[in-house]
Amino acid sequence: MEIFCFLMGILYVYTFNILLPIITLFVFFITPRFPIMLFFVMGLILALLHQWFISPQGLPNTPVIPKALVKGTIASIPIQNPNKTQFSFAIETLNGQPAQGLVQLAWYNKVPSIHAGQRWQFSVKIKKPRNFLNPGSSDYVNTLATRHISWTGYIQNKNNKRLANVHSHPSWLKLRERLSKKLTQLSPDTRTAGIIEAL
């Protein structure tokens, strides 16, 4: 029961659903044990610490940054289409100043070969995501927030260069990218490749 209450505390921080503390109080009322409330509070504290740790730092509080020079690491497997390549980018510096944050970037036209885990310097235009005003549309900002992405943008065609990796230790992301490429090569067509990768 304590693990259930710990999970309730974590979920409450991410959803702010008022039913979660009410359910925890109900469980405490049925079996009045102090660890039930203690584990709920521990879940709250853990989730709040996680939010603080991943929150963007060193980024200005403006809706749009029209021109910025960022350095960092490609933090996802790039999704490549004929017209663009899209990926998550973990910022290390913004205009020469230390910064931290995850940005979803798109690179249009003449994209060089990029891979997860590589360090790059990009000239970008980034903005905070906004929800669409269409009734019934999905919550775009919340969808990005679940992946810890706080900015979106695109790469401009100048001052882009690959940087030397500080440390080249093996990572799960690089392994996933290699497996994905191998499965794509072995599959008979692109639709089959997508299904096999998902499995």
> How big is the Rg?
21 Å
DSSP summary, beta strand count: 7
Biggest sheet layout: 5 strands, mixed, barrel
Class by helix and strand content? Answer: alpha+beta
What series of H and E elements makes up the topology?
HHHEEEEEHEEHH
Helical percent range?
A: 25-40%
Proportion of residues in β-strands: 25-35%
Query: What's the shape?
Result: globular
Strand order of the largest sheet: 1-3-4-6-5
Unreliable segments (pLDDT under 50, ≥5 consecutive)?
none
Written description of the protein model:
The chain is α+β, with helices and mostly antiparallel strands. The chain has helices at residues 2-15, 19-30, 34-54, 140-146, 172-186, 190-198; strands at residues 64-74, 79-80, 84-94, 97-108, 119-127, 151-155, 161-163. Strands 1-3-4-6-5 form a 5-stranded mixed beta barrel. A hairpin with a 3-residue loop joins β2 (79-80) and β3. α1 runs parallel beside α3 and α2 packs antiparallel against α3 (34-54). The radius of gyration is 21 Å and the shape is globular. The mean pLDDT is 83.
